[in-house]
Amino acid sequence: MNSPAVRYYHDLxxxxxxxxxxxxxxxxxxxxxxxxxxxxxxLLTRYLRPKFLRIDQMKQVREVCTVLRNITAKAKDAxxxxxxxxxxxxxxxxxxxxxxxxxxFTRICVTSRWDSFWGKxxxxxxxxxxxxxxxxxxxDVMSRIYLDLPVMKRFKERYRVESFHVREILLHAMLVTYLxxxxxxxxxxxxxxxxxxxxxxxxxxxxxxxxxxxxxHGVPTIIADPRELDxxxxxxxxxxxxxxxxxxxxxxQEFIDKFxxxxxxxxxxxxxxxxxVNSFRTKIIHKKALFAMLSDTKNAxxxxxxxxxxxxxxxPWTRVVKDGQTDIKGRTVDLLEYVSLNxxxxxxxxxxxxxxxxxxFGWDISQEQWDAALNDARQEPFVVQEKxxxxxxxxxxxxxxxxxxxxxxxxxxxxxxxxxxxCLTRLSTSNLANVTAGGxxxxxxxxxxxxx
Length: 452
Known about the structure:
By secondary structure, this protein is of the alpha+beta class. The protein is globular, with a radius of gyration of 23 Å. It has 16 helices and 24 strands. The strands form seven sheets. Strands 4, 5, 20, 21, 22 and 23 form a six-stranded antiparallel sheet that branches. Helix 9 (204-216) links the parallel strand 7 (193-196) and strand 8. The protein has helices at residues 3-15, 18-34, 55-81, 83-89, 93-100, 136-147, 150-155, 166-180, 204-216, 252-257, 263-270, 283-286, 289-295, 305-314, 335-341, 367-379, and strands spanning 38-39, 42-43, 51-54, 111-119, 122-129, 159-162, 193-196, 221-224, 230-232, 235-238, 241-243, 245-248, 275-277, 318-320, 325-328, 331-334, 346-350, 360-361, 382-386, 392-398, 402-416, 419-428, 440-442, 444-449.
């Protein structure tokens, strides 16, 4: 994608001498470390090139994401009125109880990330991280570091380069949500924010980057472990710090697993005494069964013609794994038989996991292994999804000389309310383009050739 710009960027790297490249790479890694662009102590990248997007490509992403935002709001509404949708979503009893609590504002997602691949068949979204997506602050920090590379400064002589300011949009979306939250009138006008997750998570460095940004812009912010909160007299606290708005980064399942230890946050949320972003209700659309709900023609009446067109073009065929018949490309098939016979074009995914856990790629395993995975998938909530073309791009890095590697590129735009702002761009040598699973990352810039 954008091969002329990529070729020009690589040519500029090739023109640099060995000493220049080594020095640039050393400073690049040093800044990544100093500015906390790390995951569990591991630098997020070693690659010396960002991903480039043309203006028309960025426009397309924005337009599609805006429609998807409306679609997911309808999917949330369908969950509450349609028993079949609730059954396929397969929320646990405790997840259902949390989803039933009114968070005090109407928006289903304040911050979300749509994970996609942009291959030869166009933009295909394969998962939605609606819980508490990581990468927002990392994207900002890495963008600044890439823009300061000597090679990028030369590249900008020919191309106009625009980065995203993702933390700014995140903070704005959170403050707007707080002002729309039903409890804000009895709280302070500028909220005290707590970034809430366990102390030992590998994304802790990102929390520090977010806190520093929020504090710099006049919003008091702390990082807090949910087990160390206190709730009394209608106020949630971390020590002496009164909390108005929780930026929830703790996962719902982990919250439930330690439910007895996190009662102060639960009670404050249940009582409407604190604004929680994202709310626990987002689990409804975080489940991968969302993609089955969207792509199944039996649910088409929930959506407009334009919305169905976006679904057909950008959401791959997905079904919840269970006995029965379904439709595929206009014909009716027995689902389990079809899945067994078409492994090379399908992938099995747990309905609710992250980091690539439990995924089986049909084209990578034997028929016997695939049928065993399918049988296991029948016992637990799983989805089956059609294979989408996986895009490969060549990315440069320094290793005693300039080296290139063909990498799978996972393109993951962030959506804050109705605003698309930036994206996490993950790179991998395997099918799992996931930082948790050991992959790397880069950033995306919008570019346009200068007119002289």
